[in-house]
Specification:
The structure holds 2 protein chains of 2 kinds.
Chain A lengths: L6 E7 L2 E10 L4 H11 L4 E12 L1 H16 L3 E5 L3 H9 L7 E2 L8
Parallel strand pairs in A: 2-3, 3-4, 4-5
Antiparallel strand pairs in A: 1-2
Chain B lengths: L3 H11 L1 H6 L7 H8 L11 H8 L4 E2 L8 H8 L4 E7 L2 E8 L10 H51 L10 E8 L6 E8 L5 E8 L3 H21 L3 H12 L9 E9 L4 E7 L5 E4 L2 E4 L17 E5 L5 E5 L1 H4 L11 H9 L5 H12 L10 E8 L13 E7 L4 H12 L7 H22 L7 E9 L2 E8 L14 H5 L9 H8 L2 E6 L4 E8 L9
Antiparallel strand pairs in B: 1-2, 2-3, 4-13, 5-6, 6-7, 7-8, 8-11, 9-10, 9-12, 12-13, 14-15, 15-16, 16-18, 17-18
Classes of the chains: A alpha/beta, B alpha+beta.
């Protein structure tokens, strides 16, 4: 499996800023993820959609931790969905899931 | 200055002729004959006359000299009346000695002038001639040393095995590289009854032809003994007994002799003070120990015997001092621990690895200090000895470039596909391999694409072992601590630092080792039982 470039699209749905992520969440994703989060603006909920993400490494975890820290400082809630089972497990192990809501699939959040 | 008196003596011998030619007047034959056969006079360099001649302005009348000098007495006794010092560049290089004039008259002022100007011209010429002579002698001695080296090399090479034994199920390699001044290293393989093979590695103290001769003798005596006696300890005992009477003073031989039973991997050996064999097993490395004194020192010695079984996949290395005692540019020794570390590393043949590491360790253009001899035995992993869970031993390397960890993790996944790891555990292994490889690339090898990351995969019993090795052995290894997520979320800590923690939680066991050169992270996944350790 070759590396795929990271991309992030932002859309706003009922006060929720949805970040549609695709590609690898690794060191190459930093700039685009920060830009996408900036576009989320003051939305009270930031939803990270991992449906098109096949690979997250420890650097990617650090990026998500960084984003989560910023969101918490801004009083925003962070949610995640579309995570493959393996990465749900990793979110559990790293306790990221203690600080963000993991939604089962896209249907749960309309 | 030990050559000094001889050169003076030589000049005196040659002074016969000048004595004769300086003679102008026709004279009776008898006294002339007497004068030309003046005996050789040796003048020790500390005789006071040397200093006197050295500073004399010209020809010296010996009759009028008042010096407490044995050489002066000798010269007088030899009939020398007039001595003309040959001084060049402040150095007394010879004497022109003249007996009495045949007319018995004193030497005239003109005679002295002639002799002095002759001496002034002869002295530098003589000095040059002496220099040339000395250089010729040195060149001859150098040539003799070179010739000796050629002979030593020839003996050495003639007595080393021309080919390696061909044993099914075993890979045997040998390497020998002499130092410029050939040492006394040797190795040998002896075919024994029942398909057994005798292995010999040894090192004679001393260098050059004497060492080569002793090496040749040891080899022959050892071969003869090995043909008669089965026990390696007894073989060395006999060799020692036979060598002791004829061993030159201050020489001895370190030697290891072992018998390999190829069908079972049984290796029984005894050791006469040689370096211990190193083996690489599934659990790491070990040295095989057997004690005994070097050969040729004392008669009546006994040699302890040790037995080991070389299991399929295991490697044994026999080695001489030339490797461990090699020095780096900073005068650091290569050392036994480093050598053992290289034996334990993966990828390629063990001798190749040792030579690569040695090359990296020693300065460019290094002149090898001692002979280097390496013999390796690898028992093939396969055939009927395979563990029931299946056989696996794969090794590959990747250059240290960011992103290569993905490919490495895919290759590991392919290699272990046949083991039937359940998908969730395979995903975990892939993440662990990817993270460990990324650490190796970025931290261990500092993203230097010329440094390889070695990845070895093997099955040991029900444990799948994936070893990831980098070249950053001198760097400290961080502990796999649990990151403080709260502190990170409050901005009190950097968000990074998840790699090792992740790896540890992905696999059943994580072992980290360093040998000072390499770092090895070993990931362990248990195959049987299928218990998912992640929860």
């Amino acid at each position: 499996m070759a590396a795929t470039e990271f991309a992030a699209q932002v859309r706003h749905e009922d006060g929720v800023a949805v970040l549609d992520l695709s590609g690898d969440v690794s060191s190459g994703a930093e700039q685009k993820l920060l830009e996408a989060y900036a576009q989320a603006g003051g939305a009270s909920v930031v939803l990270l959609d991992f449906s098109d993400v096949d690979y997250i490494n420890s650097t990617g975890i650090a990026l998500i931790v960084g984003l989560l820290a910023q969101a918490r400082a801004a009083g925003q809630e962070v949610q995640a969905r579309g995570l493959a089972e393996h990465y749900r497990e990793i979110f559990r192990i790293t306790r990221l899931s203690d600080f963000m809501t993991i939604l089962d699939d896209e249907g749960d959040n309309g | 200055m030990s050559a000094w008196p001889q050169s003076i003596a030589r000049v005196i011998r040659r002074s016969e002729k000048p004595t004769a030619t300086a003679e102008e007047t026709a004279a009776p034959a008898e006294p002339a004959a007497e004068a030309t056969t003046a005996p050789v006079v040796q003048i020790p360099p500390n005789d006071p006359i040397v200093a006197y001649f050295q500073s004399a302005p010209g020809a010296v009348d010996l009759d009028g000299l008042d010096l407490d000098s044995p050489a002066l007495d000798e010269l007088r006794a030899a009939g020398v009346r007039l001595a003309v010092p040959l001084v060049s560049q402040g150095e007394l290089v010879g004497l022109l000695n003249l007996g009495p004039r045949l007319s018995d008259q004193d030497y005239s002022t003109d005679d002295r002038k002639l002799l002095n100007s002759l001496a002034a011209q002869a002295a530098p010429a003589l000095q040059v001639a002496q220099l040339v002579r000395r250089q010729e002698a040195e060149a001859r001695s150098r040539e003799r040393i070179e010739q000796e080296l050629r002979v030593a090399t020839l003996i050495q090479q003639n007595f080393l095995p021309k080919k390696l034994p061909d044993l099914p199920g075993w890979q045997i390699s040998a390497y020998y590289r002499p130092a410029r001044e050939v040492g006394g290293d040797f190795y040998d393989f002896v075919e024994l009854p029942d398909g057994h093979i005798g292995l010999v590695i040894g090192d004679v103290t001393d260098k050059g032809v004497p060492a080569a001769m002793v090496m040749a003798a040891t080899r022959s005596v050892l071969r003869a003994s090995a043909a008669r006696v089965v026990s390696p300890g007894e073989v060395l005992e006999r060799v020692n007994e036979l060598m002791c009477p004829d061993m030159p003073a201050k020489m001895f031989v370190t030697c290891l002799y072992g018998v390999l039973e190829p069908s079972t991997g049984r290796f029984r050996f005894a050791n006469a003070g040689h370096n211990l064999p190193y083996i690489r097993t599934a659990d790491g490395t070990a040295e095989l120990r057997a004690t005994g004194m070097p050969l040729g020192l004392l008669p009546g010695l006994k040699y302890e015997e040790t037995e080991a079984i070389l299991e399929p996949g295991q490697v044994m290395l026999l080695h001489s001092d030339g490797v461990a005692e090699a020095h780096s540019a900073d005068s650091e020794m290569f050392g036994f621990p480093r050598l053992l570390g290289v034996v334990g590393a993966r990828g390629g043949e063990v001798i190749d690895r040792v030579l690569t590491e040695l090359d990296r360790f020693t300065p460019q253009g290094w002149e090898q200090e001692d002979d280097i001899t390496l013999v390796s035995l690898t028992r093939a992993d396969g055939g009927s000895h395979v563990a029931p869970t299946g056989f696996l031993d794969v090794a590959f390397t990747i250059p240290s470039e960011q992103g290569n960890e993905r490919g490495a993790s895919e290759r590991v996944a392919e290699a272990v596909a046949s083991l039937g790891l359940e998908p969730a555990r395979l995903e975990k292994l892939k993440t662990a391999v990817s993270e460990a490889t990324m650490n190796a690339i970025e931290h261990g090898n500092q993203s230097n694409p010329e440094l390889p990351v070695e990845i070895g995969i093997r099955l040991a019993g029900n444990e799948l072992l994936v070893r990831i090795t980098d070249q950053g052995g001198e760097r400290e290894i961080a502990e796999a601590e649990t990151p403080d997520l709260e502190a990170k979320l409050e901005g009190l800590q950097k968000p990074r630092g998840w790699g090792l923690f992740l790896i540890k939680n992905m696999v059943d066991d994580l072992r980290i080792a360093t040998d000072g050169i390499h770092h090895t992270v070993e990931l362990v996944m248990r195959i049987e039982g299928g218990d998912d350790g992640g929860n």
